[in-house]
Amino acid sequence: MKKTLLGLCTVAALTLTACSSGPDTGAEADQSEEITVFAAASLTEVFEDIADEFTATDPNAPEVKFSFAGSSDLVSQISEGAPADVIATADEKTMDTLENDDLLAGEPEMFASNTLTLAVADGNPKAIKSSKDFSGNDLVVCAPQVPCGAATEKWAETNDVDLDPVSEENSVTDVLGKVGAGQADAGIVYVTDIARGDGKVEQVDLDGADKVINKYPAATVKASENQDQADAFVKFLGSDTAQKLLRDAGFAAG
C-alpha cells in the first residue's frame, strides 16, 4: 500500500510539474528573439545605431537584423515573398508599390528626409564646382528605378541639366563607392552619404538640390510573424532618441 501511495504521489508530482512548466514554455515560444528590417542603403550606419538604442530601451526587445540595399531591390524581394518584418525606403513612390499591392500591415510612417548633393574625390582634383562642370568628367548616378536615381532625374529636369553619366548604379552606396575608389570623377548622392565616404570623398553643393527632397517612410510588412515587435521598431523611429541620431547623421525631419 505504501508503494502504491508513493507511486501515485510521484505521478501526481510529475503531472503538476508538467502542467506548471507548460505555460512558461508557451510564453517563451511566443517571444520572438529577432526581427528583420529591410532598409535603404543610405540608412546603413544610422539604423545600426538606432537598433542599438531600440534594444537598450527594453530588455525583452528583439535583436534587430538588417538587409540594406537599393529600395527598389528590397521592395521586389518582399513582393516575391522574402521574409521581412519592417521595410524602410528612401522615397514614398517605392513604398507605394507595397501599399498598392496590400503587402503592408498599416500606413507607412515618415521618419526622415534627405537631399541630393555631389560627391567628388578627396581634394576635388577635377575642380568640379557645380553641374556646369559635368561635361568632360565621368559622372555616376543612381539608376532611375532607385529613389536617388528618380530624385536625380527630377533634379535634372527641374534645373534644366543634361545628364550624361558613365554608369547608373542600383544603390547610392555603389555610386559613393565608385567615386571613393577613383572610378568616377563625381557622383550624385545624398548629403548624408558624404560622411560615409571614409574621407575618400568630399561634398560639392548641388545647385537647386533644395527643390528635390526625398522623404523616408517605414512600415510593418503584412506577412511579418512579429508584427508587435515590428510596429514597436517603426514607432521608435519617431522617438526623440532616434530623431537625434538621424539629425546627427545629416537627415532632416520627415
From TrEMBL:
Keyword Metal-binding: yes
PROSITE patterns: PROKAR_LIPOPROTEIN
Family per similarity comment: Belongs to the bacterial solute-binding protein ModA family.
Keywords per UniProt: Metal-binding, Signal
Signal peptide: 1-20
Protein name in the entry: Molybdate-binding protein
Keyword Signal among record annotations: yes
Domain of life, source organism: Bacteria
Species of origin: Brevibacterium sediminis
